[in-house]
């Protein structure tokens, strides 16, 4: 009993010591500085709104105007009259479908380029030609192929998601140490086993970096695509509210889009840590 009490006291003292050391970092770096940054943005918004008050609401006015969206994000009040939560889920669904289809294509192509000089010479010019093309330039082609807004948006996301993942995967594969591959050849390891046991584990950080960049670009693109195609989605919501000169809802949508992008990137980062057993790197 006395030993347990002493052990508890030791842990309590150690915890207090650790908190004293970490407290300045937590208060300053995690709470104080981010709060000051957000306050600066809000004050800037407030100042601009006061200078142009006929059109732009102040932060308190925008909060009051958006209370219904905030408190009831999943309401359904007739055809096309949906809460912002449903619109966000529709956009996330399109992004994830296009992104996953792009990853299924991009990762094998990246492996092929990284492992074969002939494939690199054949495919690299195609990548360099199509990579700078604006995602919205693909939209008319997608509409001509599918004649529907939803698959066209997914196709644009698919095309957009290819290039960063292909390039980063190829870079990771080509960066694998030649010594490891030489040892595998000496041991007469089959090619598929070299890929699964040596090349893939060494390339995973590069692959996940490409995936995170692709997902961020895909989330940027879906808003612009939905503005043009219409239908249900957070991008069309932004355009529709602007058409009504309702900037309060536009500010809410901007905040929701930003937070969703942050959550998606965080989720891929956590998946990277789980798969690679290494801390994620910033992109």
Automatic annotation (TrEMBL):
One of its GO terms (biological process) is alkanesulfonate transmembrane transport. Its main location: membrane. It is found in: Cell inner membrane; Cell membrane. InterPro entries: MetI-like, MetI-like_sf, NtrB. The keyword tRNA-binding does not apply. Keywords: Cell inner membrane, Cell membrane, Ion transport, Membrane, Transmembrane, Transmembrane helix, Transport. One of its GO terms (molecular function) is nitrate transmembrane transporter activity. It is a multi-pass membrane protein. GO terms for cellular component: plasma membrane. The keyword Transmembrane helix applies. Residues 88-268 form the ABC transmembrane type-1 domain. It comes from the Bacteria. The chain crosses the membrane at residues 30-51, 95-116, 136-159, 217-239, 245-268. Belongs to the binding-protein-dependent transport system permease family. This is Nitrate ABC transporter, inner membrane subunit. It comes from Fischerella thermalis JSC-11.
């Amino acid at each position: 009993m006395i030993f347990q009490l002493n052990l508890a006291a030791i842990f309590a003292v150690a915890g207090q010591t650790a908190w004293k050391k970490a407290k300045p970092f937590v208060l300053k770096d995690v709470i104080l500085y981010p709060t000051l940054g957000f306050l600066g943005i809000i004050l800037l918004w407030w100042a601009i709104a006061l200078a142009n008050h006929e059109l732009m609401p102040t932060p308190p006015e925008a909060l009051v105007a958006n209370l219904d969206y905030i408190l009831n994000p999943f309401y359904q009040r007739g055809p096309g009259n949906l809460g912002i939560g449903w619109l966000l889920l529709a956009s996330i669904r399109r992004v994830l479908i296009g992104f996953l289809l792009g990853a299924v294509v991009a990762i094998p192509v990246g492996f092929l380029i990284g492992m074969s000089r002939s494939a690199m010479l054949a495919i690299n010019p195609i990548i360099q030609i199509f990579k700078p093309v604006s995602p919205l330039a693909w939209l008319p082609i997608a509409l001509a192929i599918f004649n529907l807004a939803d698959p066209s948006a997914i196709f644009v996301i698919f095309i957009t998601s290819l290039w960063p993942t292909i390039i980063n995967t190829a870079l990771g594969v080509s960066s694998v140490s030649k010594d490891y591959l030489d040892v595998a050849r000496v041991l007469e390891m089959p090619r598929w086993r070299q890929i699964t046991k040596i090349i893939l584990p060494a390339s995973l950080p590069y692959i996940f970096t490409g995936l995170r960049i692709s997902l961020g670009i895909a989330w940027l693109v879906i808003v612009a695509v939905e503005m043009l195609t219409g239908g249900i989605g957070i991008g069309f919501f932004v355009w529709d509210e602007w058409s009504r000169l309702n900037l309060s809802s536009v500010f809410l949508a901007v905040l929701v889009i930003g937070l969703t992008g942050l959550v998606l990137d965080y989720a891929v980062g956590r998946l990277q840590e789980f798969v690679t057993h290494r801390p994620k790197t910033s992109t």
